[in-house]
Design brief:
- By secondary structure, the protein is α/β, with parallel strands linked by helices.
- It has helices at residues 4-21, 33-43, 65-73, 86-95, 131-147, 176-186; strands at residues 54-59, 77-83, 102-106, 114-119, 149-159, 173-174, 190-194, 201-207.
- The chain is built from 6 helices and 8 strands; from the N terminus they run ααβαβαββαββαββ.
- Strands 1, 2, 3, 4, 5, 6, 7 and 8 form an 8-stranded mixed β-sheet that branches.
- The relative contact order is 0.16.
């Protein structure tokens, strides 16, 4: 499913970005803070608006930008950030050394189950892998999101509906309909596809039935 070489390549790619741009959106390969915040807002729609407390796993946490966003919106939650890059985890820990309620680990999967599990941007840069190999990697991570969440999970992908002249060979453009169908059949009957927030991507929310 997830090969060691692939994970090593992913870690090396993002470590080169963080070395060049530091703990900024560009350091995790996003264009800027505005689009990064827009993505977080879509992903966090999975969180029950009536909840007073929740726990959350962040798969591919980078330097902890999602944790920063959550702290600005919620007051009662615990957070686990997970990343395959040791340098990303080291930076995330340094940035939050005095903050309670957050933990960061160097791994390809969470070490505990949380209410929600989110993944932002981890399916975009396929690093020369074929569509088939990258889709297998994507599906393996969806299984991790599912196993690591009690109430639901959310993730985003670049969309296959992107303008052809704007597509790049090293990026992976997913078919939103295929992933919606996969999630409906494999994980839950309660699935939402969000494709209306002005970026060349989509977000899928998978709510679990208790």
């Amino acid at each position: 499913m997830q090969t060691t070489n692939l994970l090593v390549d992913v870690a090396a790619y993002y470590e080169s970005k963080i070395a060049e741009y530091g703990d900024t959106p560009r350091g995790v390969d996003w264009n800027g803070e505005e689009s990064q915040t827009a993505r977080f807002a879509e992903l966090c729609k999975i969180i029950d608006s009536n909840t007073t407390y929740f726990s959350l796993n962040d798969l591919g946490c980078g330097y902890g930008a999602l944790f920063d966003y959550l702290r600005g919106k919620y007051t009662a939650f615990t957070y686990l950030g997970v990343d395959v890059s040791p340098e990303m985890v080291k930076l995330a820990k340094q940035r939050n050394i005095t903050v309670e309620g957050a933990r960061f680990i160097n791994s390809d999967k969470p070490d505990k189950i949380a209410d929600y599990c989110l993944a932002s941007g981890i399916f975009n840069v396929r690093l020369g892998r074929s569509d088939t190999e990258w889709f297998d990697y994507l599906q393996g991570n969806l299984d991790i999101l599912d196993r690591s969440s009690r109430l639901g999970f959310a993730f985003n992908c670049l969309t296959a509906y992107s303008d052809e002249d704007k597509k790049r060979d090293y990026l992976y453009y997913a078919d939103p309909c295929r992933l919606f169908d996969l999630c409906k059949r494999r994980y839950s009957s309660q699935v939402a596809l969000l494709h209306d927030y002005g970026l060349y991507e989509f977000t899928i929310l998978v709510r679990k039935i208790s």
